[in-house]
Design a protein that fits this description.
The protein is an all-alpha fold. 42% of the residues lie in helices and 0% in strands. It catalyses: 2 a phenolic donor + H2O2 = 2 a phenolic radical donor + 2 H2O.
C-alpha cells in the first residue's frame, strides 16, 4: 500500500489547490481543478477492479461496510488514506463519495468518462439495506434488471456496465454454487462452458479465460432480451463499445446522489460525523 501511495497520492494535495467552493445544489463538472490523481492512480492497476466495485456499492442507498456483500470489498484503506491526506489540508470540502467516484474512473486507465462532483456523503448506513440492494452475482437476469430499472437504468446500461467485470478477480464464494451446487444436487451450471469450468476447478477458482464467471453474467449473455444487443456490440468497434460504456457509467454515477444540503462531508469515510446518527 505504501508503494501505491508513492505512485498515486503524490499530487492529491496539489490538485486541490485551485478549488472554488460551490453552494449549488447539484452535481457540477470541474468542481476540483483536475480529476483525482489522474496522472498517477492509473498505475495502481491492482486496485482498478476494487475501486470500480466500491464505486458501484457506494452508489447504493445507505450502503454499509459491515454487510456481507461488502465484506470482500478491497481498496478501503486506500480511500481512507486519500481522505485523511485531503482532510489535513482542505477539511470538510471533498466528500468520500467524490474521492471514490474519481478514483474508480482514473484507476482503470481505460475509457475516460465525465464525473460531475459536489457529491455529499450519507448520514445513515445500514447493513440490512446494503444486503437487500446489492444484486447477487448468482442471480438470474430479472434481479439485476429490476434493480437497474428502479435506478432509472435500462438493459443496455446493465450489459455495458457489466463489461467492467472483464478486469475483475472474483472471490470463489461469489460463484462456487455456479460450479459445484447449481440446483442443490452437486451439479454444475449448464450454461457454464465445460472447459472453462474444469479450468476453474483445477486452478481452485482462479479465472484464466474470457468466459463469464458469474451466473448473473451468464444470464445476461444468454437471454434473448440482451443477446441481440451483445451481438451488435461485439460486431462493432472497440471505440464504439467504449463510447457506450462511458455513457452507461455516467448514468450509473448519478444513482441516488446527495448534493446541496443533503447528507454531509464525512471527516472519516467509515463513520458519519455525529455519533447519534450511527446505526
Amino acid at each position: 500500500m505504501g508503494r501505491l501511495f508513492g505512485l498515486g497520492m503524490g499530487i492529491v494535495l496539489g490538485f486541490l489547490g485551485n478549488i472554488a467552493v460551490s453552494t449549488q445544489a447539484q452535481l457540477e463538472m470541474g468542481y476540483y481543478s483536475k480529476s483525482f490523481v489522474e496522472d498517477h492512480i492509473r498505475n495502481a492497476h491492482s486496485l482498478a477492479a476494487a475501486l470500480l466495485r466500491m464505486h458501484f456499492h457506494d452508489l447504493l442507498r445507505r450502503a454499509e461496510r459491515d454487510s456481507p456483500p461488502n465484506f470482500t470489498v478491497r481498496g478501503i484503506n486506500f480511500i481512507d488514506r486519500a481522505k485523511s491526506l485531503v482532510e489535513a489540508e482542505y477539511a470538510g470540502i471533498v466528500s468520500c463519495a467524490d474521492i471514490i467516484a474519481l478514483a474508480a474512473r482514473d484507476a482503470i486507465g481505460g475509457p475516460f468518462w465525465r464525473v460531475p462532483t459536489v457529491r455529499r456523503d450519507g448520514v445513515i448506513s445500514r447493513a440490512s439495506e446494503a444486503l437487500s440492494n446489492i444484486p447477487s452475482p448468482s442471480s438470474k437476469l430479472n434481479a439485476p434488471q429490476t434493480f437497474f430499472a428502479n435506478k432509472g437504468l435500462d438493459l443496455k446500461d446493465l450489459v455495458l456496465s457489466s463489461g467492467a467485470h472483464t478486469i475483475v478477480a472474483s472471490h470463489c464464494s461469489s460463484f462456487r454454487n455456479h460450479l459445484y451446487n447449481f440446483t442443490g444436487g452437486e451439479d454444475q451450471d449448464p450454461s457454464l462452458e465445460s472447459g472453462y469450468a474444469a479450468n476453474l476447478k483445477a486452478k481452485k477458482c482462479r479465472s484464466l479465460s474470457n468466459d463469464t464467471i458469474f451466473r448473473s453474467d451468464s444470464a445476461i449473455t444468454t437471454s434473448p432480451a440482451t443477446k441481440l444487443f451483445i451481438t451488435q456490440v461485439l460486431q462493432g468497434s472497440l471505440d464504439n463499445f467504449y463510447a457506450q460504456f462511458v455513457m452507461a457509467m455516467e448514468k450509473m454515477g448519478r444513482i441516488d446522489v446527495k448534493t446541496g444540503l443533503a447528507g454531509e462531508i464525512r471527516k472519516h469515510c467509515a463513520l458519519v460525523n455525529s455519533p447519534n446518527q450511527r446505526e
